[in-house]
Write a structure and sequence with these properties.
This protein has 114 residues and is α+β, with helices and mostly antiparallel strands. Helix content is 28%, strand content 33%. It has one domain.
Length: 114
Amino acid sequence: MSIKLNIGILFFGVFLWGKAVKAQLVPTKGLSPYGEYRQEILNLGWKPKPSIVPDYVPGWPEIICGNRLCSATFISPNGKQILTLSVWFDVKPGHIDYYVAPAFDIVEVEQTIQ
């Protein structure tokens, strides 16, 4: 096989992989913007639990992201519950919009978290 053919196959594979990834992105239409939802949670007394990667998403230390999805974690006012939200994102030219996904988890903890 020639080098040109190998390079052509590589570029075609990358092109197809890019199309597949784009098709797998989660829909955000109709979801609440994360910033608005976050403010409501803060107003109820929940505290953001910073992720292990500081400033992963500037201004929202509680968010950590993977390839396609993010999560945000909050601690209840009494420190006995942890709320984890699924956060979806939409990449736009020059910025990323974050949305609250319709999945969450609340866990009771044995020791109070500050």
